[in-house]
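Input chain follows. Return structure tokens only.
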Amino acid sequence: MRRTAAAGSAVSVRCRFRGVPAARARRLRERARRAVRAALRAEGVRGPVEVSVLLADDATLQALNRTYRGKDRPTDVLAFPQDGRVLGDVVVSVERAAWQARRAGHPLEREVALLVAHGTLHLLGYDDQTHAGYRAMRAAQDRVLERMRFPGRRRARSP
């Protein structure tokens, strides 16, 4: 799962969603940038690579999910791997992240970091479609969140 290539890495983060104050959107962009870098470091990636992150809404994720995966429903994160120095693109639904954060009882910033880390790990070759792959992905996500000082998983609050 390791690739050669994190110091001097280019991380582009764009926002295309409404309903979040500008200051919070800036924090989300910075958190996304940090999540990519933390994932690259956690996986031992050395040298410059490029990752692009788009923080979007459910409608954008649904359209991408329909086009590229044949599933006509929104999802929380999609990853589009490329080759070489350009690792690829990660697209996160901030709407879905906000819902999941409320359900899990943690801040939106943590959920966005988790989803961006998840997408970045997919770009690095992780696949969570098997039980073993899912467990490896969860362990890697936990390492990334620890690096970002978001300790441990939190349980969803009971209603």
